[in-house]
Design a protein that fits this description.
It contains four helices and 15 strands. It is an alpha+beta fold and 241 residues long. The protein has a seven-stranded antiparallel β-sheet with strand order 1-2-13-10-15-8-5, covered by helices on one side. A four-stranded antiparallel β-sheet has the order 9-14-11-12, with no helix packed on it. Strand 1 and strand 2 form a beta hairpin. Helix 3 runs antiparallel to helix 4 (123-131). The radius of gyration is 17 Å and the shape is globular. The chain binds 2-oxoglutaric acid. 2-oxoglutaric acid (AKG) binds at residues 139, 141, 149, 154, 165, 172, 174, 191, 208, 210, 230, 232.
Length: 241
């Protein structure tokens, strides 16, 4: 980044909770350093589960991220209760504490106190809605500093409830697109260690991606020393029959 780019980066402005576009709320530093350490320890444990971190193939090419999932398995054909390329193993379940974090994230992100234009509900209405939010799949991506993720929509779920996303490690450039096309208009924001982003309503099916990781930007006390973990919590709306 050049010196003048730095003057106009997100970091040059305060990192207060804000609506990026209607339906997309960004809450910087939502995870405390302690929660980030806790998550990093869980990721280590989950990575030793029945389906090890792997790079799914898209059109025959491995993704540059390494994926682990909870609740449901994901590959480019969609979500499945079992992983056919891993001896039909079932993913580890989504723990209750993580469901509670998801509820808290939805409630705080869409609190009217942050001034978002969507969903325009009272504090009490948001609390009632968030109380029913029950994510049953979690996708965890590990990005080496050189990894990226192309523009895509999260649309393998039948439910249109929001996606909750936590980041730990190096800062990522996160591209907030639009629901119609992979190209402009989009906005690039920085997701730093501990940041929360929630996208729902008019932006639930927005195209989004990660064009770049900024190496060596994790805080000194961050448990992830190189690269970045991101986890997204979603409600599938599917039964496992
Ligand atoms: O890493 C991120 O922030 C985004 C991850 C993502 O888009 C996905 O898992 O579908």
């Amino acid at each position: 980044m050049t010196e003048t780019e730095g003057l106009f980066s997100d970091d040059a402005f305060d990192r207060e909770p804000r609506e990026v576009v209607p339906g997309v709320m960004h809450l910087p530093g939502w995870l405390t350093p302690r929660s980030q350490s806790w998550l990093a320890r869980q990721w280590d444990d989950w990575g030793r589960g029945p389906i090890p971190p792997h790079s799914p193939l898209i059109n025959g090419h491995p993704m540059s991220v390494r994926l682990t999932t909870l609740g449901w398995h994901w590959d480019s054909s969609g979500l499945a209760p079992r992983a056919r390329h891993f001896d039909d193993a079932a993913p580890l379940p989504v723990p209750d504490w993580l469901v509670r974090w998801g509820r808290k994230a939805v409630q705080e992100a869409y609190s009217p106190s942050h001034g978002g234009s969507w969903p325009a509900l009272s504090e009490k209405e948001v609390a009632a809605w968030a109380g029913d939010y029950t994510p049953d799949v979690v996708l965890i991506n590990y990005y080496e500093p050189t990894a990226r993720m192309g523009m895509h929509q999260d649309k393998d779920e039948r439910s249109s409830e929001p996606v909750v996303s936590f980041s730990v490690g190096d800062t990522a450039i996160f591209r907030v697109g639009n629901p119609q096309t992979k190209s402009k208009p989009y906005r690039d924001i920085r997701l730093a260690s501990g940041d929360l982003i929630v996208f729902g309503g008019p932006s639930r099916y927005m195209f989004h991606g990660v064009p770049r990781i900024l190496p060596n930007t994790a805080p000194a006390d961050c448990p992830v020393r190189s690269g970045r973990f991101n986890m997204t919590l979603r409600m599938t709306g599917w039964d496992k029959q």
